[in-house]
Amino acid sequence: MDNWRLLISPPARGAWNMAVDEVLLDATVCGDSMPTIRLYSWEPACLSLGYAQKVKDVDLDLLAKYGWELVRRVTGGRAILHTDEITYSVLAPLTEPRVAGTVLESYQRIAEALIMAVRALDIPVEMVTEVDTTRSAKGPVCFEVPSAYELTVDGKKLIGSAQSRRKDGFLQHGAFPLYGDLRRITHALAYDDETLRAESGEKVLTRATNAEMVLGKKLDWDSVAKVMVKAFEEKLDISLVPSKLTEEESAKVDELITTKYAAWEWTGRF
């Protein structure tokens, strides 16, 4: 059993969350940090775009009206509205055997930990092993269709994840929506008319779910975090050591917010 680093971050802005993940990724690659599991949330709500997603998918006026923020991820995929959720990230050098192998092999290892955690919450979750191509979607919403090794309940996507391998490092993060109206994401996206917006919202409900919709009750964030920590430790055979950002890491985060994640040159690049 190896020691890994655990960070449980307070609710924060999207640009800060993305900058922290990148700084921690660099730290693990350089050997300045142990491989890391991070659990976090977002305040205010934030729409994140996949790395190459077009910013024209976003209705910037509506986004501002609701007081939501916008950020671009380094991972691929489509838009996610981060609110009322627990987000996880796994960061490690590619030499770490638990993330080695193909993208799908590492997805599966992490998915097994997520399955253990979610089932411990009495949610009857399943892992997608084969993607149903008949349900493919070309729209901007990430949660419309599950990908391989993502988690579903009764065929509806519960946890969406995305992975990036850069700088000899491994980053995977994902969102586990706990409660709230999943249709809210359509209020931040661009549609030709309000009928299409409403139809898209209803489609989300047929293809995605959250913990509250399955259990009929809200789960406490801290309680879910504890369950996830235990599952990551058991399934990855690691011991998680609670930690905080160092002063040097915090300074790098602040710089990266300014130069990248809060800069339109990054967010609006596509």
Q: What keywords describe this structure?
A:
8-stranded mixed β-sheet, single chain, about 270 residues, alpha/beta, 3-stranded mixed β-sheet, BirA Bifunctional Protein, domain 2
Please give a quick description of this structure:
The protein is α/β, with parallel strands linked by helices. The protein is built from eight helices and eleven strands.
Please explain how this structure is put together:
The protein is an alpha/beta fold and 270 residues long. The chain has one domain: 2-Layer Sandwich (BirA Bifunctional Protein, domain 2). 42% of the residues are buried.
Task: Give the H and E element order.
Answer: EHEEHEEEHEEEEHHHEHH
Judged by helices, strands and strand pairing, the structural class is alpha/beta
For the largest beta-sheet, the strand count, sense and barrel status come to:
8 strands, mixed
Percent in helix: 25-40%
Low-pLDDT stretches: none
Tally of separate helices: 8
Q: Note the overall shape.
A: globular
The termini sit apart by 43 Å
Strand content: 15-25%
Name of the level-1 CATH class: Alpha Beta
Radius of gyration: 18 Å
How are the strands of the largest sheet arranged?
7-8-9-10-6-2-1-11
Return the average pLDDT rounded to an integer.
92
In CATH, the topology is named: BirA Bifunctional Protein, domain 2
CATH superfamily: Bira Bifunctional Protein, Domain 2
The strand count comes to: 11
CATH architecture assignment name? 2-Layer Sandwich
Tell me the domain tally.
1
